[in-house]
Design goal:
heterodimer; A: 220 residues; mainly alpha; 11 helices; 80% helix; globular; B: 259 residues; D-Maltodextrin-Binding Protein, domain 2; 2 domains; five-stranded mixed sheet; 10 strands
Chain lengths: 220, 259
């Protein structure tokens, strides 16, 4: 068992959902309650990572953030190091890959809040902030939690993008999913089997949690 | 919701893991050609025993590491299976110098138990079995970016088998994965590094025979420190040129350069 890789994966999942929580809430609310021209295009764009092969995204990230690209050079000039083959680069990639996993459940949750409830809040003179904190979030939280759980688990399992953008660097970009691949190549099937079983169990538990939350949201 | 603060604390701790790991004196990352999977792991363990210092090994195809180092990958030492990659990085100013030749590799034909193929390094039996149609899949490393894949391709061309076997090839990302494919039982055999075949884990999975060295360009393996190298990486580089490390390379079938 590669504990370093496991720690790295958990941390990557943590950072990913830390970024996706505010992004998801803002985007989810916006998409749930606003109608505008081209909304379908925006929704399609945000849902793209669901169907796009991870290698396509990996390729574009490698090209756009690499040491030879203007963006890559700008990042290197500001932070002293580039994003490709670093943990930070993985976080960027992971946030992009998980956009639909975070935004879609949140959007559904915000859509489910009756219009009258929000109007009543607005009539009582609640500021937008207090509306969010006292009315919207308490009603939408199962959807938000589902989004976070899904994004986190999906990050643990992400492989293609991690390998392309991160390489396979111990302690920096070698996540559990990549470590399994690595151990199989090293003829170390015992470690591969342990890590695979752990990911299987972890995925089952987290998906289970999201179903439990889903049932709680819509009691039948 | 009383547990919320401790949950939050645990979450923040997880977030901080990479930073914490970085704050410690970080063991240098070594990019190593996949044929070194077993030999270098053994050498690194001995290095740790002797010095108390550790290095972190990342194995893959030499071509991939060449690309990663060119794009700013954080490796401190690069052990390539093809010296031209090292010369190329040296020319680009990414390594300290042109480094050192540390080993010359050989390739073998390996066949898993139950395969119709005989472990015959002259590839005569492979030619016969190809005619019989008993070879459906044959593993080598990807010649595009793996030196051992290129050597395998040269050997198959020397034996006049390339055009016949090309459609039956399964390509490993690197020679270690090719060895995995070749011995999995799903392929009838493959051409892999001698150094991998000699390891207990792989030799338990198949029989092998050396392919004549003049059927391919010599696999001149060269290592160099990158511009990012710190003290530990430099110590490891020196250690790999010392008699104990050379002894390990020799045991894994490498031909050693003379001083």
């Amino acid at each position: 068992m590669d504990w370093e890789a496991l720690g790295l994966s958990l941390s990557l999942g943590g950072w990913t959902i830390a970024f996706l929580l505010p992004i998801g809430i803002l985007a989810g609310r916006w998409l749930a309650w606003t109608k505008f021209k081209g909304k379908e295009a925006v929704e399609a764009l945000l849902a793209l990572p669901l169907v796009l092969p991870p290698t396509v995204l990996g390729y574009y990230l490698l090209v756009s953030m690499g040491a030879r690209s203007p963006l890559g050079q700008a990042i290197e000039a500001v932070f002293g190091q580039g994003l490709v083959f670093t943990f930070e680069g993985l976080v960027v990639a992971s946030v992009l890959v998980n956009l639909p996993f975070a935004i879609q459940p949140m959007q559904r949750a915000f859509e489910a809040i009756p219009r009258e409830v929000r109007e009543a809040g607005a009539c009582s003179g609640l500021s937008p902030w207090r509306m969010l904190l006292e009315i919207e979030l308490p009603l939408a939280w199962p959807g938000i939690l589902t989004a976070m759980v899904l994004s986190f688990t999906h990050t643990l399992g992400e492989f293609g993008v991690v390998l392309m953008v991160g390489g396979n660097i111990p302690g920096e970009t070698k996540t559990v999913a990549v470590a399994i691949y690595d151990r199989v190549q090293a003829f170390d099937s015992e470690a591969a089997a342990n890590m695979a079983a752990l990911l299987l169990a972890l995925s089952f538990v987290t998906i289970g949690i999201s179903y439990v939350l889903g049932n709680r949201r819509s009691p039948s | 919701m009383k547990r919320l603060p401790s949950l939050l604390a645990a979450f923040l701790l997880v977030l901080a893991l990479p930073a914490l790991a970085r704050a410690q004196e970080k063991a240098p990352v070594v990019a190593a050609a996949a044929d070194l999977q077993f030999a270098l792991t053994e050498a690194a363990d001995l290095f740790t025993q002797q010095t108390g210092k550790t290095v972190r090994l990342s194995f893959g195809s030499s071509g991939n590491f060449h690309r990663q180092i060119a794009e700013g990958g954080p490796y401190e030492l690069y052990l390539s299976a093809d010296e031209t990659y090292v010369f190329d990085l040296a020319k680009a100013g990414l390594t300290l110098d042109e480094g050192k030749l540390y080993a010359v590799g050989r390739i073998v034909l390996i066949v898993p138990p139950g395969s119709p193929l005989k472990p015959d390094g002259s590839l005569k039996d492979l030619a016969a079995q190809l005619k019989n149609g008993t070879v459906a899949k044959f593993a080598i490393a990807n010649p595009e970016h793996a030196p051992y894949g290129r050597a395998a391709r040269s050997a198959l061309k020397s034996a006049g088998l390339w055009s016949e076997i090309e459609s039956k090839l399964i390509l490993g990302e690197n020679v270690s994965q090719a060895a995995q494919y070749a011995t999995s039982g799903s392929a009838q055999g493959g051409i892999i590094a001698y150094s991998l075949a000699l390891s207990p884990k792989v030799s338990a999975l198949g029989r092998f025979d050396l392919i004549p060295a003049d059927w391919h360009d010599p696999l001149r393996q060269r290592m160099a420190l990158t511009k990012k190298a710190g003290a530990t990486a430099k110590a490891f580089y020196e250690f790999l040129q010392s008699p104990p490390a050379r002894g390990i390379f020799k045991r894994y079938g490498f031909v050693l350069p003379t001083e």
